[in-house]
Please model this.
Amino acid sequence: MPTASHPDIRRVKREGNYPSIHGNKLWKSSCLLMDYLKQNPPEQAKTVIDVGCGWGASGIWCAKKLGSQVTSVDADPDVFPFLEVAADLNDVSTTALVSRFEKLTTRQLSRFDMLIAADICFWDELVDPVYNMVNRAVRAGVKQIIIADPERPTFHEMAARCVERHCADVIEWETRSPIKARGALLVIQNA
Ligand SMILES: C[S@@+](CC[C@H](N)C(=O)[O-])C[C@H]1O[C@@H](n2cnc3c(N)ncnc32)[C@H](O)[C@@H]1O
Model:
C-alpha cells in the first residue's frame, strides 16, 4: 500500500481529492482483516464486497491473493482515486461503487460470497446502519461477513447485537509485522 508521501498519492491530492469521512489513509483494521483472511482462507470468495473501502486495501488484497472479483464501496467519491493508485501498484482492479451502507439492498448484496469491512462503525450514528446492513447481508445469503475494528465502543455495540441475532463470533486479533495492529473481528458464517 502506498503511504501519503508516494508520488502518485501526492499527485491525487494535488488534483484536489480530499476524502472527508475519514477515508484519508490506510486504517490499521485493514491489516487485521487481511491477516485473518490469510490465516483463514475463505471457502467461497469469488465475489467480494468491501464496504467503507477507503483506499481499498482489504479488497485489493482479496483481488490479488484470492483472485476475487471485488466491488469497493464507499459513500465518499473522493476515496476512489487513492484506491486506484493502490490497485494499480498491485496490478489488480476493483469495481468502484459510490454508495452508503444504508442504500445497499438485499438484492445487491445477494451477488456476493463475502462482505468485508474495516473500521466502519466509528460514530454512534453508524451503529444502526452497519447492523442493518449486516442483517440484509445475512438475509441475502452472503456466505461470510467479516468486519474488523480497533474495538471502538460503537463497534462492540453493533457486534453484540450480531452475536445475539446471528450467532456471530467476535475474535480478538493482533498483527506485529509489517504493521503493528490490534483489535477485533466480527465474523459471521452464514452457511
Ligand atoms: C475509517 S475509514 C476506513 C477505510 C478503510 N476500510 C480502511 O480500513 O482503510 C471509514 C470509511 O468508511 C466510509 N464511510 C463512512 N460512512 C459511510 C457510509 N454510511 N456508507 C459507506 N461508507 C461510509 C468513509 O468514507 C471511509 O472511507
Notes: DSSP finds seven helices and seven strands in the chain. The longest strand covers residues 181-189. The radius of gyration is 15 Å. The chain has a mean pLDDT of 95.
